[in-house]
Structures
1.
Amino acid sequence: MDWGMKNRLSKLIKADGHCFFMPIDHGYFQGPTSCLEKPAETIKPIIQYCDGLFVTRGVLRAVIPPELNVPIILRVSGGTSMVGKDLANEVITTSIDEIIRLNASAVGVSVFVGSEHEQQTLLNLANLVNQCESYGIPVMAVTAVGKELEKRDARYLALACRICAELGAKVVKTYWCEHFDKVVCGCPVPVVIAGGPKCDTERQVFEFVYDGMQKGAIGINLGRNVWQSANPVAMAKALQAIIHENANVKKAQDIFRDAK
């Protein structure tokens, strides 16, 4: 791995080998998502607890201050919407020139294994890796499932994660599931946990994050379960403790309660 690639990854994955990424890219297919209508205001009180910001180029340019001292993971796939026929029908939306111009530390692209557009999205990933490797830019693959949440089991996610690693992703973002260790053990590159829809309670979030970390994940990429919380700062503090301080669920709940 070249120095530039190592340097960019070191900005995102801290010295303890762990990371807390904050995604605010939901608008690229959902529009003005609840609590994310004004992204800059949403992240202002919580970004200090995060190690990377996952964002589209449009929101980055429009509202994210250039002085923000947080590495950028640039969302570079899209082309579909919630009201369209098929969320899996994505293409690459951002050129390598744009990625470099925006000083991204990494890029993120969704793949839809098992969908009608499986080959297209996997080739999106492969072609992106081909371009980004030349410039030392890491690619994070996102194992998306669209509206088919029933796919989120260990067998499917292990398959999807391994394929992403085989095609050259440096990091894979995937959902937590039962038997999550089987997903991580079959993936030769680091795995970060996606949040998915907002959970009913804070404890549910702490439980799946803690379990995932104990079973080999290096961190999280959680958005809605943080900034849609009634207490987003408390959530961010508690999750940071699980990721970087090895806090258990009880400790995370104590931190959350004290920070409310």
2.
Amino acid sequence: MAQTVSLSAAPRQATGKGAARQARFHGKVPAVIYGHGRNAQPLELEAKALEKALQGVEPASTIIELAVDGKTVKTLIREIQRHPIRPDIIHVDFYEIHAAEKVKLKIPVHLVGSPDGVRNAGGVLDQVTREVEIEVLPENIPDRVELDVNALKIGDSLHVRDLSIANAKILTEADLTIATVVPPRAEEVAAPSPEAATEVAEPELIRKVREGEEEEGEAAPEAGAASKPEVKGAGGAAAPAKAEKAEKPKGGKES
């Protein structure tokens, strides 16, 4: 069943952003109460008392007995506004409820157990939906609903239709997935670093040519090899060496 906590509030005379800042400066939390045809009434509460009252409870499904001007009314918290940076509460909306009137509210879904697909196959449990909306009498408000996930194997899912809440009507769509077990995520293989992938080339050995040695590609004649006889032409002059055959011009005939 829903938990019940008691709080005291005082009417807030001044309204607007400036008045709200002043209230927070003095350790108060601006609030408002509405419901059952009553005009929205501005209130303020002690910030420390509010924080203490909400510790360890589910605010959305906790009945708040709010004392205002000596009269106590049962309420539900419809909205809590917090500072964008700090965890401080900066505003609260209370909704008055009556014992004989059903209310609509959202309650959290808690998963119970360890799925088979997680224990034995390394799967991952993924909770998709964390709260559901119900319609219920105030006296039957549960603080949460539990869902057993022990039997789930990889690929299995549980849906809203698998929930069971006594004395309450579930308003959330029945086919909505609550939890599923997905296959284990593949481990990423790290790519080899460029330094490891690139082999270090062997340095080229450069040797200085010594005096008297021929450079590479210009081999010296072998010792003792006979020199080619010089051919003399008429008049004893040395005949020019036989010219190499001229390169045949492209596209022409050899003369």
3.
Amino acid sequence: MSQHQTTPYDRQQSMARINDIHLHYVLEGAPNKPVLTLINMASHNLTCWEIVLQPLLENYQVLRFDLRGTGRSGWGDDAQFNFAQYADDLAGLLQHLRIQKAFVLGLAYGARTAAQFALRHPDRLTGLAMFDVALTPPVDQGDQGALGAQAAELLQAAGLDMPVRQKYWRFYEDRDAALLCHTAHQREGDTNARLHGITAPTLVACGRQDMNFTAAREIAQLIPGAHFEVMEMTGHGSVFYRPDLFVRLVTDFAPRLNAG
């Protein structure tokens, strides 16, 4: 994908050889703080977290990475585009960085990877967070745009500004690979039946104006001891509606984390 001006996407960060591909990542912050791993929503790369990065670094060491086939990361066989593989890639990246445990947070599509990580690598978790999450096969998202517009109107009426969404948050190297990454949900079933096995401290949060709201609330009920937060005046991709609230929820959850 060509760009006509220099953006944060053009500043390549670190690369690690994980599961036969190169994963693009950046690890920032004080090493004596608990590690927070952020997993992007669909069609986004690791630059999208810039709007919440600095306040998160006050409490966490933050790891961001591009899923295989997205951003600047490499990719392998078509069959490897699935959430279990994405979770195993993250586990390999943590091992590469000698990080024993992390607070793993997934946003929207990224929450599916976070759920798989919790199920496949429970010993690597200090905590789990899933924002705007649904784990069932794909549903009709036709009203999501209207709900998002409603949330934006409510925010404007309350005198709250939304951040400007940057085009480079959605840049990638290969169209076909990015498409395969972001259609994995079409090839996987319902994960809800396995959620009772998650034992890590868990935060589930969802915007009131999000088609996934009912699904997210159900997911919180299925995970033992999970904490559910409703994000008012917020649509799908909650961090892009209310980054301040997102940061507060993630920061306030820190005391609940297991020891790293």
